[in-house]
Amino acid sequence: AMREGERRFLSAETLLAVSGGVQRGATELMHEQRRRAEWCWAMLSDHAWNGTDERNKRLNARLRRQWGEEFLALADEVEKLGWSRIAQSSDSPSVVLFNSLSFPRRDLVCVTGVEGAEIAGARAGRELLPVQRSSEGDRSAWCFVAPEVPGFGFRDVALVDVAAPDNPAARLRATESLLESPFYRLVPDAKTGGIASLVHVPSGRELISTDAGRALCQTVYFDGQEHLLGEVRVEPVAVGPVFARLRITGTATRMTVENLVTVYAELDRVDFEVRVTKQPCGDQERLCHMFPLMAKDATVRAASGGAVVRPRPQPVGDLLPGADTKRFAVQEFVNVACDDLSVTLVPHDAFVLRLDLDELAFEALGNDQNYREVLRDQDGQTQFRFRYSLRAVGGGYRGAEAIAFARSAATPLGWQVGRFAMPAGDMPRIEIDPARAVATCLKPPADPKVDGVVLRVWETAGQSEPLRIGVSGFARAVVADLLERDQSPLAIRDGAVEVNLRPHGYSAVRLAR
After folding, report:
1. Residue 337 CB partners (closer than 8 Å, separation 6+)
2. What pLDDT digit, counting tens, does each position of 70-109 carry?
3. Neighbouring residues of 213: CB distance < 8 A, sequence distance ≥ 6
4. Closest to 248 (Cα-Cα) out of 286, 216, 291, 214
5. What's this model's pTM, rounded to 2 decimal places?
6. Is the model's pLDDT at 25 over the cut of 60?
7. What are 259-299's pLDDT values in tens digits?
């Protein structure tokens, strides 16, 4: 809940900052709710949760569940207020899209709540986009790949009864033995439930290590002995103009696993959604997803806590003597790179990278690190979901590009049924070169008596030159520290400011109208 809540809360605060930024004094909006959400966030990340006895373990589990649920509910409340200032009802089916990240991007959007309308396409300006209907149980949605939405910006999209023309170059295939897009070709492994082959179509390169003993995104369970999936079934569940999807299912001791693998006609990525139904086990255990990417001598990097490091002991990596060489906490992504190709893997939910299991792996569930301190019954939980996104690019590792992909994959575009209600001239614009930096947040100030918005940026290119930030629509700019205390004024020239940043460092700016 914490990782999902963090992303949703940051997106909601950005929406509130952008919508409230058009009025002076708007920073008091939802102040108490945001303060409480930050408290829940801090407790989820820093609370000393180890258990000394059964009663203490139960209390810790209850508190963490309570904080996680409250965190998500508060994020939804903040988001709802932000949308109330941006979108209004429309006579025809339409949606407003919002990009809470600082760089322009496209993404998959799946719209619900427009039942009864005749929908065959999506129109954004003069561009007609293909639409694909997706259904699961009693839920259905209209899905399309959005046009490019500017950083911290909006786009109106109308849902129309006119279909987009067919694009033969963007054809998708999904069978029991193949999943293919213009970017990737996957062969499922009907024995293990993983992916036996993953080819990057533009380069023709196989992305799975040729000497790997595991399949990609293979589920491996260990409770004193190893258990692999059995009774594996592979079936195509969707193929259309927008995406194609395979469902891979299997069983192991005390669990069933479903993996939805998706590729896209116009998005360069592969998505995995692993759903696990697992009964409790009183033994030490771990459930891992294996990712044997590239060759054994490829360089591995992991983004954790605002730094990208090579999680191997020096001199091959960056770990100092005494560091844990078995487990590494991943915040943003793992990148595996050779000189001519690199693969970025984004874990949306899991975060424990295992470096001691022959292949790269994420430990999604487990108690083998702190067995004496945790409950043995999963706190009654049996349903789990773990998502991963993967992208390959030609050339070696490029940090700014990997960070941008990781944030884009993990943070979907926001949307609201209706039309954009704010005059374009009323919206200030913030522009950051994604090749140099990304914003880690855009938010109302913590002090409700302070006007404007606070922008925090992370230099991702390793360069020391001043960073130029477009700030059209703002009249004042002040450099702040990371606690939002004003430091020195910034001159706005030609609608932009220049901020001094250390390579890979952070800075904050307060902007006011």
Report:
1. 294, 298, 299, 301, 343, 396, 397
2. 999 999 999 999 998 888 888 889 999 999 999 999 999 9
3. 292, 358, 359
4. 216
5. 0.94
6. no
7. 999 999 999 999 999 999 999 988 899 999 999 999 888 99
Token readout for 329 is 């906490």
Q: Number of helices (H) and strands (E), helices first, in the chain?
A: 4, 38
Predicted confidence (pLDDT) per residue in 236-259, tens digit:
999 999 999 999 999 999 999 999
**To 10 degrees, what angle do helices 54-84 and 31-46 make?**
150
Joined together, the tokens standing for residue 388 give: 């991963």
Contact 128, 122 (CB under 8 A): yes
CATH level 2 (architecture), domain 428-513: Sandwich (2.60)
What backbone phi and psi angles, to 5 degrees, belong to 248?
Answer: -115, 120
Cis omega (within 30 of 0) for bond into 165: no
| The CATH number of the domain covering residues in 168-410 | 2.70.98.30
What Å distances lie between residue 125 and 91, 129, 146, 159, CA to CA?
Answer: 18, 10, 12, 12
DSSP string covering 79-148, please?
HHHHHHTTEE--SS-EEEEE--SSS-B--EEEE-S-TTS--SEEEETTEEEE-EEEEETTEEEEEEEPPP
Across-strand partners of 337? 299, 342
Amino acid identity at 85: R
